[in-house]
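We recall that each integer encodes one residue's backbone shape. We quote one record:
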Amino acid sequence: MAPDERGAAGGAEGLIAFLDRLARRLALEVHTLWLVFRHPETPWPVKAVLILLLAYLASPVDLIPDVIPVLGMLDDIVVAALALWLAYRLTPPHVMEECRARAGEAAAGRTGWVSRLWRWLTAQGGPDRQS
């Protein structure tokens, strides 16, 4: 059985590295979508889908109430995935490439917040330790 990316560094360090990469990718995609929304060549249906998605996620009204253990969150995930898929499909490829490149340039050189938090928590015994 080949080791996956999470286990490459071993234990907690591997998990932290995996979560850090995941958080960076999510931040990059959110920034890309923000740039797509603001791009002058983005068609209005893409902007409408993104606005409706944000309104749906911020709204207390759900298709399935969140008090139902698994299904309550699952409907939000499904609606978000479908809306994002539609936004990506409707966005012209050159606009997506340009915005993804601009988001990548903005993120270059930044350390991930998960790694910084882990180093802060493990340095000197954690945040509760007084010097």
